[in-house]
Amino acid sequence: MSENHEQHDGGGHHVNYKRIYFTLLGLLVVSVAGPFFGILIVTLVTAFGIALVKANLVIQNFMHLKWERRLMKWMLTTSLLLMALMFAGISADVLNHEGRNWENLAARAAIERGIQDPHAEGALAEGGEAEPVEVAFNVENTFNLVCGSCHGTAGDGTGAAGAALDPRPANFTDPAFWETRDRARVMNVITNGAVAVGGSPLMVGWSASFTAEQIEELTDHVLELRPE
Amino acid sequence: MAFPKPAATLRSATGIPTGRLAVWWLLASEVVIFGGVLGSYLMFRLGHPEWADAAAHTNTWIGAFNTLVLLSSSFTAVLAHQAAEKGDGKTAAKFLVLTIGGALTFLMVKSVEWTIEIREGFTITANGFWSFYYTAAGLHALHVIAGAFIMGIVAFDAYRGRELQRVELIGIYWHFVDVVWIFLFPLLYIAK
Questions:
Q1: Which residue of B has its CA nearest to A11?
Q2: Which of A146, A204, B84, B149 is the least crowded, having the fewest Cβ atoms under 10 Å away?
Q3: How many whole angstroms separate alpha carbon B139 and alpha carbon B136?
């Protein structure tokens, strides 16, 4: 297929492949030597900065992208942009382990647990499988994170997310609030939402998120905020 | 030509030989595949400081040796291309065989490395780091196997002076596999 063959253009540019190869080897040595200095920034630059330089040398000179038509460069740029779009879209949720109204308990637990030495006793269950992540329910943390966003961690109705709500989130430290409430009603509202007692639809029910026992604990926590 | 060829093989509407355009299209899709894996690895790694402890168990020297092997095999692949441009199919085939040798060396080192790690209990289910480690390097190794296999076919033809344009095409693919490793190496072996 000589017609295609004649269109080869890389060879016509007299690339000194040997020189590029030895440059690549030199760069490899630098990237391996980088961490020996023990300085984070040096390691990062020698690892990833040099990886970019190496990749660029290979792509431009060995793959001949340098002499390729613009169409090809646009194709590859599009792929890279798609990759960047994916990263920009989801990295915030992976890099952060908490936001205003959510907390990634499993990620937190994983960090706390650290990487286990597989030889350590009890590190792995008998089947050789990693133990599942079990996050204990802590009523105070849950109240602070879930309820506190609107009702305030002190339960006084001053949570940041509740600032603009109408009606205002209930203030559990207000004696007037408790004149018309009892334990059964509080539990009903937490379970089914305030709509169940003719209240605001903004206070949603939590029966899908917590077990009956957990809701009882939350109810008791709210009752503890009641002023004497 | 002994065989009739489909029109698309000979046509070049874009000014780029169709085969080469096809390889670049393939690579554009590969960028998204490997980019997705590496991008996910990066964000999880940054969000999980404890992964550094796991990364400390990877062997930098083995990784560096395999980088050397792949860079060298890229070099022989481009020399094969150079020979093919001069119409020297036999030399091109010789360099392609050397490149296949690089691929086999890479895979052998990798299997020894993995055997050691798995025996120590660092399996794919051990934790998030090792899951990414085996997935990313495993996907890359599959590309090495595929490349070596296709290179064998191309070398067989090139030795007989046939389809010399394919030497460049498999070369471009091979350099891409090299580039992926260039990024995997610091991500899995150096940043600890």
A1: B82
A2: B149
A3: 5
C-alpha B30/C-alpha B25 separation (Å) is 9
**Is A195 within 8 Å of chain B by CB?**
no
A46: enclosing H helix or E strand: none
Contacts of A55 in chain B (CB under 8 A): 179, 182-183
Residues B119-135, buried b or exposed e (16+ Cβ, 10 A)? eebbbeebbbbbebbbe
B182 contacts in A (CB within 8 Å)? 51, 54-55, 58
Q: Are the Cβ atoms of A1 and B79 closer than 8 angstroms? A: no
pLDDT in tens, A93-150: 888 888 888 888 888 888 877 766 555 544 444 444 444 455 678 888 888 888 888 8
The domain B16-190 having CATH identifier 1.20.120.80: the answer here is yes
CA atoms of A219 and B13, how far apart (whole Å): 72
Length of chain A: 228
Neighbouring-strand partners of residue A103: A98
| Whether A176 and A213 share a structural domain | yes
Residue A86 is assigned to a structural domain of this protein:
no
Please report, as a single letter, which amino acid is at residue A101: N
Inter-chain touch B1–A1, beta carbons under 8 Å: yes
Residue A82 resides in a domain? no
A3 near B CB under 8 A:
yes
Amino acid B60 reads T
A149-194 confidence digits (pLDDT tens): 889 888 888 888 888 888 888 899 988 888 888 889 999 999 988 8
In a domain, A198, yes or no: yes
Please state the length of chain B: 192
Specify if A168 maps to a domain.
yes
A127 with A149, same domain? no
Number of domains in chain A: 3
In this structure, how many other beta carbons lie within 10 angstroms of the beta carbon of residue B56?
A: 10
Domain, as residue range, for A9: 2-63
Residues 6+ apart with CB under 8 A from B40: A94, B132
Q: What is the ipTM of this complex?
A: 0.89
